[in-house]
Amino acid sequence: MRINCPHCGPRDSAEYTYYGDASRVRPSLTDTGVEHWHAYVHERNNVKGPMQEFWHHLHGCRQWLVVTRNTATHEIGAVRFAKSPVSDTAGA
Ligand SMILES: [Zn+2]
Q: In sequence order, what are the residues at sequence separation of 6 or more whose Cβ sits closer than 8 angstroms to the Cβ of residue 87?
């Protein structure tokens, strides 16, 4: 599997570290609801199909990326820097 880093270009996935679902929303720090924090920390969706994931280009530019990957086929869609606007994407 190759991931097209917006900074480095296409690189083997062995250069990256996977950090999971990028679509989860952290509860507000003032939110004291245990059920909200439990869901955020422990519950994961088992997505089959396109999913946004955090990947760290550890053996490259060390940037955090949001990669859209199809979990059934491993096809890579959009790749962007984690801190950039959603519209700043690079195709696979
Ligand atoms: Zn990179």
A: none
CA 30 to ligand 1 center in whole angstroms:
35
Tokens 């550890």 sit on residue? 58
Q: Could you list the residue range(s) of the whole structural domain that residue 28 is in?
A: 2-81
How many A from CA of 45 to the centre of ligand 1?
Answer: 27
Q: Is the pTM of this model over 0.90?
A: no
pLDDT at residue 46 is higher than 80: yes
In-domain check, residue 48:
yes
Give the residue carrying structure tokens 């195709």: 91
Nearest to 72 by CA among 88, 91, 51: 51
Residue 47: which CATH number?
3.30.2270.10
